[in-house]
Amino acid sequence: MTAKPPRQAIALTYDGVNTPSLSAKGDDELAEAILAIAREHEVPIYENAELVKLLARLELGDAIPEALYRTIAEIIAFAWYLKGKCPPGFEQQAEPSLPLLGGPES
């Protein structure tokens, strides 16, 4: 029997000006605590095990790597859309222009 890999979670901080950075990461119980805090504050949760593995390599406070800018930008844009937010100078559209991104559940 193979051992089930630990559940992982990461959280990113983005202020709208600087590159998003890693603000939390953890496995198992800490991952569940990160997810609980996100739910409590109505932060959209995006599940993608491969992306979490890549970002979990970073240290807390590290900016996301340039190679992931577009991927993270699309996720942030969709999360903002879900919250009814948009960057200054942009108008909110009636329908999302980004596809719903998905991935395997972790």
From TrEMBL:
Pfam families hit by this protein: Bac_export_2
Any one GO CC term of the record: plasma membrane
Keywords in alphabetical order: Bacterial flagellum protein export, Protein transport, Transport
GO biological process: protein secretion
Described purpose of this protein according to its UniProt entry: Required for formation of the rod structure in the basal body of the flagellar apparatus. Together with FliI and FliH, may constitute the export apparatus of flagellin.
Family label: Belongs to the type III secretion exporter family.
Name this polypeptide is given: Flagellar biosynthetic protein FlhB
Organism: Pseudomonas saudiphocaensis
